[in-house]
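Renewal narrative, Specific Aim 1. Our central claim is that a sequence can be written position by position from structural information alone. The example that follows is taken directly from our test logs and has not been curated for this report. It begins with the structure tokens describing the chain, in the order in which they were read.
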């Protein structure tokens, strides 16, 4: 039980606080150092997520052949016989396409003599169910279309049957049309020779049935025959849909060409992403530490507004990654990889041709600038050489930058515990990283310091308690002497 200076008249709590304040300053310093380490780890994570995004979401996507080596197709000859759906980067040469048959859907038409009658009256089979072991008629009729049952009320009409079929067309793979003249038309929703399988249509009440079988599409491409149930074909990287038979003697000629517009758009996007990452890295490397601003202790925060705390800590965090070795190395390697782009390509005579990519001023530290007109001219000269600068498997820019980025991410993961694949700014840190271990050790020392401070505080109170007890005894003895 603590005494509060009743005998001595001293403010014991205030005196203990003053005595502890000097010692607690050492603890505050420990917390501030740990806070700096945590801020640094968080800053590493922030830049790491940008590197992950650049490598995994940008570079790897640009390195896809269908993006940087995009091609488009041209049709000559009979241009009405087919349309191009897609042209893959593997598309090459010319295809001479003769369309001999278009895929069609099967169609059955039933003509009823009394179309206003109910389905039961028209001869549709009434379903039965077992009641007490005896087959008993129900109030429904049914039919089978492509192996699936369609059920409607027996007193329904043909129009009702058509509506029920259309409501379930996805399951039945068929649609229906009915007109007042008494015709019910069933059509397969898919083209091809597989046809339309209908069972359960009445033998009575139907005066005429017309069945039209479905057919597969057939084409001849450069002398080779192909068939398709849905009018779509994929040959040599070209994907196309046939629409009509080819005019005799005038085949449709499909030829592949580089899609320069898409290539230019891809390179423009790459340069924007590269400049964004380099700007972020250079900003971290050049950020000056604010030595006059340190992390705030809990007591210091109590004397400040939230806005003041925010502004103070923004300045206190500055420069945590200044001149970081890993980021310096990555920036250097990315700039080095970009040198091949600045060098451009060579024509057949060995003359250099710019692809329109240059660097900014020295102060812009590796920023790339694009002259789109020169890029298009280089693509017109030799698009394969231009795309090879980016996509070459051994020394292409994309491969080099991807490797350098992964190397940096690996170093950052070991150093700060950041992720190799995540762009989550709130993700957990690896506990076995250098910074994670340092922070854990700092927290351990802080806990030990708190225990020590608690013991010292208790010792102070014990001393003051002993003093108060002694004073009380002295006062009691003095009072006894006066009473004698």
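The sequence written for that structure reads:
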């Amino acid at each position: 039980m603590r005494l509060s200076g009743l005998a001595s008249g001293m403010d014991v709590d205030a005196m203990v606080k003053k005595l502890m304040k000097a010692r607690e300053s050492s603890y505050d310093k420990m917390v501030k150092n740990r806070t700096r380490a945590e801020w640094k780890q968080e800053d590493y994570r922030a830049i790491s997520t940008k590197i992950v995004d650049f490598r995994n979401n940008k570079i790897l996507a640009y390195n896809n052949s269908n993006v940087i080596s995009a091609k488009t197709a041209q049709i000559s000859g009979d241009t009405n016989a087919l349309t191009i759906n897609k042209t893959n980067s593997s598309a090459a040469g010319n295809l001479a396409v003769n369309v001999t048959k278009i895929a069609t859907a099967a169609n059955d038409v039933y003509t009823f003599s009394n179309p206003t009658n109910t389905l039961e009256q028209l001869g549709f089979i009434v379903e039965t169910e077992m009641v007490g072991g005896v087959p008993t008629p129900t109030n429904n009729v049914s039919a089978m279309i492509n192996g699936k049952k369609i059920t409607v009320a027996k007193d329904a009409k043909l129009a009702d049957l058509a509506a029920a079929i259309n409501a379930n067309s996805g399951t039945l793979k068929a649609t229906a049309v009915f007109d007042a003249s008494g015709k019910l038309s069933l059509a397969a929703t898919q083209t091809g020779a597989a046809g339309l399988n209908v069972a359960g249509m009445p033998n009575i009440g139907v005066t005429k049935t017309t069945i039209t079988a479905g057919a597969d599409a057939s084409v001849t491409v450069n002398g080779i025959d192909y068939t398709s149930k849905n009018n779509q074909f994929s040959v040599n990287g070209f994907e196309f849909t046939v629409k009509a038979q080819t005019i005799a003697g005038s085949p449709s000629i499909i030829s592949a060409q580089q899609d320069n517009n898409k290539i230019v758009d891809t390179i423009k996007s790459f340069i924007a992403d590269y400049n964004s990452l380099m700007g972020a890295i250079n900003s971290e490397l050049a950020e000056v530490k604010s030595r006059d601003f340190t992390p705030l202790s809990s007591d210091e925060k109590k004397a400040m507004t939230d806005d003041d705390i925010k502004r103070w800590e923004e300045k206190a965090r500055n420069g945590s990654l200044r001149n970081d070795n890993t980021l310096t190395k990555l920036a250097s390697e990315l700039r080095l990889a970009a040198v091949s782009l600045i060098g451009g390509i060579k024509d057949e005579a060995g003359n250099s041709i710019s692809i329109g990519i240059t660097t900014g001023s020295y102060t812009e530290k590796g920023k790339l600038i694009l002259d789109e007109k020169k890029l298009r001219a280089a693509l017109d000269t030799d698009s394969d050489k231009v795309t090879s600068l980016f996509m070459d498997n051994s020394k292409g820019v994309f491969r080099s930058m991807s490797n350098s980025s992964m190397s940096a991410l690996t170093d950052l993961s070991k150093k700060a515990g950041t992720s190799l694949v995540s762009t989550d700014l709130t993700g957990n840190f690896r506990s076995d990283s250098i910074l994670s271990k340092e922070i854990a050790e700092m927290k351990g020392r802080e806990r030990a310091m708190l225990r020590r401070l608690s013991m010292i505080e208790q010792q102070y109170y014990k001393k003051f308690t002993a003093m108060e007890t002694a004073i009380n005894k002295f006062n009691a003895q003095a009072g006894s002497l006066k009473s004698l």
